[in-house]
């Protein structure tokens, strides 16, 4: 991350060299830290508490929202500058990378389960490697802490189909469709609205590859994609108009109001539903699987507030680079998510078995985030802008150093 202040207005957060918005990257980095702290230290730990103190908001929701926002910003710009062919080629490569990343996480979970560490992935172990590999290739063995990329993959594929509508100025139609689908999901959700972690314990115990419905939709639901899409597709529309309407500048101007609104909503949710007189209806307004309305309102408001706050802070802290760990990690949020998902299984197996002491938990949590930051710095040092180009760039560097 350059330390010099870019030319432009005092609140500018975009680097001229790459066009990246450092405030978005910092917000994504905070989302990654939130997930790492929750997965490794626990939501009630001292490390995780600051990013889980706001009721019904977590790093996963922020990750989905910001992914939609960045998609709208980036792909809208590519269509304008490079055309449709380039845009869809890049989208195709991104989908392949996402698929391979989720397959990797699934294979790690399969191996851990077969080795007797099924409690780490919270899934019933498969009986043989063939079944495990088959489920991994179908993305039907999603471990706890590594189960978000399938939903992201689906959203990204659908977003590619919606780009022509956005190009024709029909963003309102995308927004209306998203809100309508969310409303339907809150009233009645058929089985195929649910993303499940596996086909279920019964199927894994006695695999039947002809039972495609159970393979696709069996097991316990972990996400209602028809509800969770309310974070991605409205953000996609906002990202499409991000630069045209100067939404970043508007959010910075509204920062005092966003902070006040966030504080007011926190009080209402915490004293009303979390600990107050309406606690008994909390599942109906804040369930995470079905992403109920309290989560929608809180997540959107908090992410907007955090973006505006980081956008205000970045120009003031750039020279001392205090936000660099968040910015660099957020710039490689997919890599960071995969690293933490693999580490969540690998560390207890190869380094230190659970349960961990307080100090070990803190050290491991910080080390995993440090690993994500170090990886982001490594990619930057090699100028690896896209993950699928990493092998080619590494081979080229090695040949240069050996004089071949």
From TrEMBL:
InterPro entries: UCP028704_OpgC (IPR014550). The keyword Coiled coil does not apply. Keywords: Membrane, Transmembrane, Transmembrane helix. The chain crosses the membrane at residues 53-75, 96-118, 148-166, 173-195, 215-242, 254-273, 293-314, 334-353, 359-376. It comes from the Bacteria. This is Acyltransferase. It comes from Gordonia crocea. The lineage of its organism: Bacteria, Bacillati, Actinomycetota, Actinomycetes, Mycobacteriales.
């Amino acid at each position: 991350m350059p330390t010099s202040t870019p030319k432009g207005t005092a609140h500018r957060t975009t680097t001229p060299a790459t066009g990246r918005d450092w405030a978005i990257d910092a917000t994504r980095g905070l989302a990654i830290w939130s997930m790492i702290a929750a997965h490794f230290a626990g939501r009630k730990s001292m490390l995780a508490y600051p990013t889980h103190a706001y009721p019904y908001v977590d790093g996963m929701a922020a990750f989905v929202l910001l992914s939609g926002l960045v998609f709208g910003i980036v792909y809208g710009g590519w269509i304008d500058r490079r055309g449709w062919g380039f845009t869809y080629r890049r989208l195709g490569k991104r989908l392949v990378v996402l698929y391979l990343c989720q397959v990797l996480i699934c294979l790690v979970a399969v191996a851990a389960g077969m080795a007797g560490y099924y409690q780490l992935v919270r899934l019933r172990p498969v009986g043989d490697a063939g079944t495990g590999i088959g489920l991994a290739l179908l993305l039907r063995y999603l471990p706890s802490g590594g189960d978000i990329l399938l939903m992201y993959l689906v959203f990204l594929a659908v977003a590619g189909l919606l780009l022509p509508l956005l190009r024709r100025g029909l963003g309102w139609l995308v927004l209306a469709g998203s809100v309508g689908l969310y409303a339907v999901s809150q009233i009645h959700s058929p089985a195929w609205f649910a993303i499940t972690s596996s086909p279920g314990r019964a199927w894994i115990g006695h695999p039947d590859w002809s039972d495609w419905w159970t393979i696709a939709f069996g097991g316990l639901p972990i996400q209602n994609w028809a509800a969770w899409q309310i974070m991605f597709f409205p953000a996609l529309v906002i990202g499409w108009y991000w630069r045209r309407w100067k939404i970043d500048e508007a959010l910075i101007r509204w920062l005092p109001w966003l902070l006040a609104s966030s504080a007011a909503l926190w009080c209402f949710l915490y004293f009303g539903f979390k600990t107050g007189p309406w606690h008994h209806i909390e599942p109906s307004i804040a369930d995470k699987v079905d992403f109920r309305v309290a989560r929608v309102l809180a997540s959107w408001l908090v992410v907007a507030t955090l973006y505006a706050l980081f956008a205000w802070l970045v120009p003031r802290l750039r020279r001392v680079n205090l936000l660099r760990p968040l910015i660099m990690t957020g710039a490689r949020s997919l890599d960071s998510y995969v690293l933490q998902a693999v580490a969540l299984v690998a560390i207890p197996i190869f380094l230190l078995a659970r349960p961990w002491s307080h100090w070990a938990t803190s050290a491991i949590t910080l080390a995993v985030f440090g690993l994500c930051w170090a990886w982001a710095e490594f990619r930057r040092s090699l100028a690896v802008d896209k993950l699928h180009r990493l092998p080619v760039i590494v081979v080229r560097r090695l040949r240069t150093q050996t004089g071949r």
